[in-house]
Amino acid sequence: MLNFALRRLSQLLLTAIVSSFLLFVVTEFSPGTVSRQILGPYALPNQVAQLDEKLGLSQSLPRRYLNWVSVLVGLKANPLGDPALGLDLHDSRGERYFGNFGYSLMFKQPVRDVLGEPLRNSALLGAVAMIFIVPLSLLIGILAGANAGTRLDWSISSLCLIITAIPEYAAGVILLTVFVSYLGWLPGTSPLLASEQWSVASQLVLPVTVLALATVGYVARIVRASMAETMTKPFVRTALLKGLSKRQIVTRHVIRNGMIPPLTVLLLQLNWMVGGVVVCESIFAYPGVGRLLLQAGLFGDLALVQTITLLSLAMAGVTQLVADISYVALNPRVRLT
């Protein structure tokens, strides 16, 4: 188990290095530069070039990447914090520390200070949504997979396909029209500020419903396919010949063996819940990371975009590592590979 975990960790580290370099390259060649953001759209080219020189942006791409990583791990100070530039950017943690993601030019604050509350809000939304998504998708998928080829399976699969085909923005508009405009049962926005009319819990209902609709059908179909395939395995026929009931076979043997492929899908939903819910958070004005990513992209805040993307990549890698280790617990044969 230890060798297995170390091997996966080394692969994760290599993936992190490659993905961070690709992210840096993409953002470096995106329209606009940090100097242009600071000086404004009407700055003269020679003024932009002078500031590029001060910030080290005129160096080669590999050198700029090493400088960026050095600031991130705390080996160098962020040049934007230099008082000589007159940008009035300060970090209470000091000039050098591990996890220095730089400064947000949109908020004129360190990125870590900007991300704190949106991360907590997105984590809250994701946690509440997963409380409903996991049991619903597993129950629906297991029920359909255990009865593969029957009318019940066909009905469940068709319903899941229909729900999955509905885009997030369409589901949000439909829910807003019905429950806000027509019935008036729920608030139309989710600022997470309690008022006399709407509690914080009521503000979470519509965003959580949209996320559940976008995810349950997809995950349930993955569970259904894995369960249906597992039901055709020889050990299921052996259990039937031994006299075990279908319910005993499903609960004791099929579920454990059939949950290995859906496990990765469920874990990857955690990453999507934090950084991939841009549409949902924008529709309901939810103050999370997804909405912040959209705002940063529209403004051209490269440091904020880079940081949110890095966090999403890191979370995807960690969830994949957890899934790989979980495979060993669910299927001991994985240890041999």
TrEMBL record:
Subcellular location field: Cell membrane
What is the protein name given in its UniProt record? Peptide/nickel transport system permease protein
Q: Which organism is it from?
A: Neorhizobium alkalisoli
| MF (Gene Ontology) | dipeptide transmembrane transporter activity
One of the record's GO cellular component terms: plasma membrane
Membrane topology listed for this record? Multi-pass membrane protein
Q: Mainly localized where? A: membrane
Q: Output the Pfam families linked to this UniProt entry.
A: BPD_transp_1 (PF00528), BPD_transp_1_N (PF19300)
The record's comment on protein family reads:
Belongs to the binding-protein-dependent transport system permease family.
Q: Which SUPFAM superfamilies match?
A: MetI-like
Ranges that cross the membrane: 123-146, 158-184, 204-223, 265-288, 308-330
InterPro entries in the cross-refs:
BPD_transp_1_N, MetI-like, MetI-like_sf
Q: Per the record's keyword annotation, is Transmembrane included, yes or no?
A: yes
